[in-house]
Design a protein that fits this description.
Helix content of chain C: 55-70%
Chains: A alpha+beta, B mainly alpha, C mainly alpha
Largest interface: B-C, 30 and 35 residues
CATH architecture of the largest domain in chain B: Up-down Bundle
Radius of gyration of chain B: 21 Å
Order of helices and strands of chain C: HHHHEEHHHHHHHH
Strand order of the largest sheet of chain C: 1-2
Order of helices and strands of chain B: HHHHHHH
Number of helices of chain B: 7
CATH superfamily of the largest domain in chain B: NADH-ubiquinone/plastoquinone oxidoreductase chain 6, subunit NuoJ
Structural class of chain C: mainly alpha
Oligomer: heterotrimer
Number of strands of chain B: 0
Radius of gyration of chain C: 21 Å
Chain lengths: 187, 164, 353
C-alpha cells in the first residue's frame, strides 16, 4: 500500500520565514498565557509524591499471592509460573501437608518457600497467565523500591501480604490449617 | 599606561614566537593585539583601537584558530635545526632594520616639533573623521584598495572551486 | 533622589564610577542568574509543563521555584571540580573567564537611564561616559571577543564533540558578525553619530520615530544575528545537545560550568540591552518628553527584559537549524539583506530625508 505524500508548496509569505516564526510565537505564547492562569494542580503534569496517577484495571504491578477466605494460600506449588517466567525470577520449594480435619496423611501440596526477585522481574504477567489456580496476581502497586538488593527479594509471606493493607485484610505469617478440603472448593 | 600596554604588546609578541603550542601562540597574539589597541587609545584614537579589536581579534584570529582546530594537530612539529649562519644573518638583519627604524623616528620632523613646542593634546579621532578621511581625502586610494581586494577574493574563489 | 544627589556631591568622581560599575555588573549577574529560572519556568509553561518547583528553603518557602536558583548555586559550589586528564589545564581554567568577562563588560557603554545634572555636574547613567570615542563600536568589538571563551573551552577539553562545537561557534560568529555590523552601520549613518547616547537622543520619545519603524529590515537582521552571536537556540551550534552531546561545555562541571552558563545569560542580557538601545529608543519613555531618571531607568529595564524574554520565547518556539542552513542564511540572506538596508537608507538620505 503506497502512501501519497503531499508536497507542500510554500507561498511567498512563508518563504520570508518571518511570518511563520511569528505564527509559531503566537502559538507558544498562547500556551504560555493559558498555563500562567492555570494552577499547577490542574496542568497535565502529575506531581508524583503529592498526586498519584489513577492506575487502570489490569495494570501489572507488584504481585500478590492470593489466599482463601480462611487465610490459607491458594498456590499449589505446581511450578507453572516458575516455568513460564521469562526472567527466571520465581523460585518455589514445595511441601506436602494434610487437611487434618478431614483426612490423615500427606495429600495436599503448597509452597514452603515462594520467592520473587523483584530486581529481575519484568512485570510481564506471564506467571498470572500460567497459574491454574489464580493464585498469583499482578496488581496496581508500582512503588517497588528498597535500599539494598536483598530486600528486593520477596519471600512467601511478603508476597501474601503485599496488598493486605489495601484490601483491609490481616497480615498472616504462618500457614493456617484449612477448614474445608481444598478439592471441594469450586474455583 | 604606555609602559603597561607596550609591555603587553611585546610580551604577547615574544610569547607567540616562543610558544610551541599553536593555540596558545594564537592567544599570545591576541594579547599583543590588545596591547596595540590600548596604545591606539593612548594616542587618542579609540576608533582605530575598536577596529583593531573587531577586525584582528574578532575576525582574523578567530578564523586562524578555526583553521588550526580544523587541522587539529595536537603534536607540535619539531622545528628544523637552523643553520648557525642563517641564525647569525637573521639576527644581523633584524638589528640593522631596528637601528634604521629608530634613526628614522628620531630624525622625523614631527618629533623635532614635539621637542620644541611640547606635546599638544591631540584631538580625539572619531568615526566621522575617519569617514571623511577615507571617502573625501583618499577616495581614489580607498576605491583602488577595494577593487584589489575584490579581485583577490574572486581569484581565491576561482582557485579553490574547481567546477563553478 | 535629592538625598542621593547630595551624597554624590560629597564624594569624589571615582566613587560614582565604582558605584556604577558595582550596580551595573551585579545587576547583570543577578538578572542572568534569574533568567536561568525564567528560562526553565517559561519553557515549562510554553510546553504545558510545570518546571522546577520543588526546591524549598527550610522545606517550606518555595516562592514559585525561585529557591531552585539557590539550590543550583550551592550544588555547583560543592561539586567536585574535575579537569580531564588529557585537557590543556591552563586553557581549560582560563576559558570560562574568557567567556564570562566579555559577556559582562560589553554592557559598559550602554546608557541605562537619562543623565541628570546635580550641583553643576552631569552624571551619566552608563559605565563609560558618552563621548569616549568608542561608542557602539565597543560592544561590537567585545562581542567578537566572546567567541574566544567558547573556542578555548572547546579546544582545551580535548574532546571531539567539544572541538566540533567550538568550530561551529567560530564559523557562525564570523559569518554573522558582518551582517550585524552592516545593520549597525546603517544606524550610525541615519543617526549621524555612533555614540549610544546620540543614537538614543536621535530616536526621541515618540515610538514611531524609533529605529524599528524606520529600519524594520535592519532590526530583523540585527536580532537574528544576535541569536547567532549569543549562541541561542535556533542557532545553538556551539552546544547542540541533540547532535554533539553538549558541545563546548561537554567536559565542564561544577563552578566552571556555571560560569559558562552565566556567561551565556549575561551575553543575552547585553544583547537585549543593545537591541533596546539601537532600535527601541533605549531609556526613552514613550510619549513622555522629559521623564524622570527613575522612570527612564524603569523604561530601559522593561525593554531590555522584554527582549531577554523574546530570546527565551523564540528558543522554545523554533527548532535548531541545520548547519548548512545556518551558513546559507548567514551569507546568502542576512548579508544581502543588511547590504540592501544600508544602500536603501543611503539613497533615502541622499534624497534629503
Amino acid at each position: 500500500m503506497g502512501v501519497i505524500v503531499k508536497k507542500v508548496e510554500l507561498g511567498w509569505l512563508d518563504r520570508t520565514y518571518v511570518w511563520p516564526v511569528m505564527k509559531g510565537m503566537a502559538i507558544t505564547f498562547g500556551h504560555f498565557i493559558r498555563n500562567l492562569f492555570t494552577t499547577t494542580a490542574k496542568r497535565y503534569t502529575i506531581q508524583y509524591p503529592d498526586m498519584k496517577k489513577e492506575i487502570p484495571a489490569g495494570y501489572r504491578g507488584l504481585h500478590e499471592l492470593k489466599r482463601f477466605e480462611d487465610g490459607a494460600i491458594k498456590c499449589v506449588a505446581c511450578y507453572m509460573c516458575q516455568e513460564a517466567c521469562p526472567a527466571r525470577c520465581i523460585s518455589i520449594e514445595a511441601e506436602e501437608f494434610s487437611d487434618l480435619n478431614i483426612t490423615q496423611g500427606f495429600e495436599e501440596k503448597r509452597p514452603a518457600k515462594f520467592s520473587i526477585d523483584m530486581l529481575r522481574c519484568i512485570y510481564c504477567g506471564m506467571c498470572e497467565e500460567a497459574c491454574p489456580k489464580d493464585a498469583i496476581w499482578l496488581r496496581n502497586d508500582y512503588e517497588v523500591a528498597a535500599y539494598d538488593r536483598l530486600s528486593m527479594k520477596y519471600g512467601k509471606w511478603d508476597l501474601m501480604n503485599t496488598y493486605a493493607e489495601a484490601d483491609g485484610k490481616d497480615r498472616i505469617t504462618e500457614d493456617t490449617t484449612p477448614t474445608v478440603p481444598r478439592r471441594t472448593i469450586v474455583m | 599606561m604606555f609602559i603597561t600596554f607596550a609591555l603587553i604588546t611585546l610580551l604577547g609578541a615574544v610569547g607567540m614566537l616562543l610558544q610551541k603550542n599553536v593555540i596558545v601562540a594564537g592567544l599570545c597574539l591576541v594579547a599583543a593585539f590588545f596591547g596595540v589597541a590600548g596604545l591606539f587609545v593612548l594616542l587618542a584614537n579609540p576608533v582605530a583601537a575598536a577596529l583593531q579589536v573587531i577586525v584582528y581579534t574578532g575576525a582574523i584570529m578567530v578564523l586562524v584558530l578555526f583553521v588550526i582546530m580544523m587541522l587539529n594537530s595536537h603534536e607540535e612539529e619539531k622545528a628544523q635545526a637552523a643553520h648557525p649562519i642563517q641564525r647569525w644573518v637573521s639576527v644581523a638583519l633584524i638589528a640593522a632594520l631596528a637601528i634604521g627604524a629608530v634613526k628614522l623616528v628620531l630624525a622625523s620632523p614631527g618629533l623635532k616639533a614635539l621637542a620644541i613646542s611640547g606635546a599638544a593634546v591631540p584631538q580625539a579621532m572619531t568615526l566621522q573623521k575617519v569617514g571623511f578621511t577615507l571617502f573625501a581625502d583618499h577616495l581614489l586610494g580607498f576605491e583602488v584598495a577595494g577593487l584589489l581586494l575584490l579581485a583577490a577574493m574572486v581569484g581565491a574563489v576561482a582557485l579553490t572551486k574547481r567546477n563553478l | 533622589m535629592d538625598m542621593l544627589a547630595s551624597l554624590l556631591h560629597m564624594t569624589p568622581a571615582i566613587f560614582w564610577m565604582v558605584v556604577k560599575v558595582v550596580i551595573v555588573f551585579s545587576a547583570i549577574m543577578l538578572l542572568a542568574s534569574v533568567w536561568t529560572w525564567v528560562e526553565r519556568r517559561g519553557s515549562a509553561m510554553i510546553q504545558d509543563r510545570i518546571g522546577p518547583n520543588r526546591a524549598a528553603i527550610f522545606g517550606k518557602i518555595r516562592i514559585i521555584g525561585l529557591a531552585q536558583l539557590l539550590a543550583d548555586g550551592i550544588k555547583f559550589f560543592f561539586k567536585e571540580d574535575l579537569v580531564p586528564e588529557e585537557a590543556n589545564k591552563g586553557l581549560f581554567w582560563l576559558a570560562p573567564f574568557l567567556a564570562f568577562v566579555p559577556a559582562l563588560i560589553g554592557f559598559a557603554v550602554i546608557p541605562f537611564g537619562k543623565s541628570f545634572v546635580s550641583g553643576g555636574v552631569t552624571y551619566y547613567l552608563s559605565v563609560l561616559d558618552p563621548g569616549n570615542g568608542m561608542g557602539l563600536l565597543y560592544p561590537l568589538a567585545i562581542g567578537g571577543m566572546a567567541v574566544y571563551g567558547v573556542l578555548l573551552a572547546a579546544w582545551s577539553s580535548n574532546n571531539k564533540w567539544s572541538i566540533l562545537g567550538g568550530m561551529r561557534a567560530a564559523a557562525a560568529m564570523v559569518s554573522y558578525e558582518i551582517g550585524m555590523s552592516l545593520a549597525v552601520v546603517t544606524i550610525f549613518m541615519t543617526t549621524g553619530g555612533y555614540d549610544p547616547a546620540e543614537v538614543i537622543r536621535a530616536q526621541g520619545h515618540l515610538p514611531w520615530a524609533w529605529n524599528i519603524v524606520h529600519q524594520p529590515l535592519g532590526f530583523i537582521v540585527f536580532f537574528t544575528c544576535m541569536f547567532a552571536e549569543t549562541n541561542r537556540l535556533p542557532f545553538d551550534f556551539a552546544e547542540g545537545e541533540s547532535e554533539i552531546v553538549a558541545g563546548f561545555n561537554t567536559e565542564y562541571g561544577s563552578m566552571k560550568f556555571s560560569l559558562l552558563a552565566l556567561a551565556e545569560y549575561s551575553h543575552l542580557m547585553t544583547a537585549s540591552a543593545l537591541v533596546a538601545t539601537l532600535y527601541f529608543g533605549g531609556w526613552q519613555v514613550p510619549f513622555v518628553q522629559n521623564p524622570t531618571v527613575m522612570l527612564s531607568v524603569a523604561s530601559f529595564l522593561l525593554k531590555m527584559l522584554f527582549f531577554a524574554w523574546v530570546f527565551v520565547w523564540i528558543r522554545w518556539t523554533l527548532p535548531r537549524f541545520r548547519y548548512d542552513q545556518l551558513m546559507h542564511l548567514g551569507w546568502k540572506v542576512m548579508l544581502p539583506l543588511s547590504m540592501a538596508n544600508l544602500v536603501f537608507h543611503a539613497w533615502r538620505m541622499s534624497q534629503g530625508h
